[in-house]
Amino acid sequence: MPLLVGWLLRHSVVMCLLLHSLVLMTFCFHHAATSGCKSCYCSDIEGGGKSVRCSKLQLKEIPQDLPNDTRRIYLDYNELTTVPANAFAGLPLLVEVDLSHNELIQLEPGAFRGLGPSLQLLDVSSNKLVNFNLEAFEGLHARANLTNNPWHCDCDLQMAMLHVDLEPASLAGIVCQTSDPKDIGVNGVAFLLAPDVDLCVGMKKTTDVAMLVVMFGWFTMVISYLVCYVRSNTEDARRHLEYLKSLPGRPRSEESSTISTVV
Ligand SMILES: *[C@@H]1O[C@H](CO)[C@@H](O)[C@H](O)[C@H]1NC(C)=O
Ligand SMILES: *[C@@H]1O[C@H](CO)[C@@H](O)[C@H](O)[C@H]1NC(C)=O
Question: Which ligand 1 atom is at minimum distance from the Cα of 68?
Answer without folding.
Answer: 1
